[in-house]
Amino acid sequence: MSKKRKISISEEELVLALRQREKIAVEALYDMYSASLLGVIVRIVNDEAIAEDILQDTFVKIWNSFSSYSTEKGRLFTWMVNIARNLAIDKIRSKDFKNQTKNQELENNVTFIDEQRNTVYKPELLGVKDLVEQLKPEQKSILDLVYFKGYTHVEAADELGVPLGTIKTRLRMAITQLRKYFN
C-alpha cells in the first residue's frame, strides 16, 4: 500500500481553488491546516474525540462560508483559527457539553487524569511557558481564562471577582509584557 502524499500549495492558490469550489482545495486545506486547527481546538475543549468532531464542523463551516472570507481583512489561517476557536468555545458553553462533563464515569476520570500527566516534547513551545510564568499572577490567571479556556472578558471578570476595566487593563499589560520578550 503506497502512502498518500500530502498536498501543499500556496495560500493564494488555495484561496482561488476554494473560491472555485475545487475538490483539491478541500484536500489541500485539510493536509495543510488540520493539525494546527486541531491543536487549537483540543487546547480549548480538553477532549480529543470532541475536538475531532469540532474540527470536522470547522472544515464544513469554512467550505460553506468561504464567500465571507476577504484577503484584505487578514490571512486565511487567521480566519480559519477564529472559526475553529469560536466553534470550540460555543461547544464548551453548550448545555449538553456542561452536562456531559458533570456525568463522566469514574473510569473516564481515571483515564483523563492519567492523560493529563503525560508530557509531550513540543519544541515549538519551548520557553513560552517560562515567559508566561514570569508574568504577575493576576495577569497569568486572566490569560489562562481568556485565551486558553475561552472566557469572554465579562465572564473572566465575574470568575475572578474584579471589575471589567481591570480585566482589560491587566490583559493588555500582560500582552505588552509578552511582546517585549519576542521583539
List the helices and strands and how they pair.
Layout: H1 11-19, H2 23-45, H3 48-64, H4 76-93, H5 95-102, H6 106-117, H7 128-133, H8 137-148, H9 153-160, H10 164-182
Helix pairs in contact: 1-2, 2-3, 2-4, 3-4, 8-10, 9-10
Question: Explain this structure to me?
Answer:
- Helices cover 72% and strands 0% of the residues.
- It is mostly helical.
- It folds into 2 domains: 1-99, RNA polymerase sigma factor, region 2, helix turn helix motif (Rna Polymerase Sigma Factor, Chain: A, Orthogonal Bundle), CATH 1.10.1740.10; 125-183, Arc Repressor Mutant, subunit A.
- α2 (23-45) packs across α3 (48-64), α3 packs across α4 and α8 (137-148) crosses α10.
- The model has no long low-confidence stretch (mean pLDDT 80).
Short description:
The protein is mostly helical. The protein has helices at 11-19, 23-45, 48-64, 76-93, 95-102, 106-117, 128-133, 137-148, 153-160, 164-182. It folds into two domains: 1-99, Rna Polymerase Sigma Factor, Chain: A (Orthogonal Bundle); 125-183, Winged helix-like DNA-binding domain superfamily/Winged helix DNA-binding domain (Arc Repressor Mutant, subunit A, Orthogonal Bundle), CATH 1.10.10.
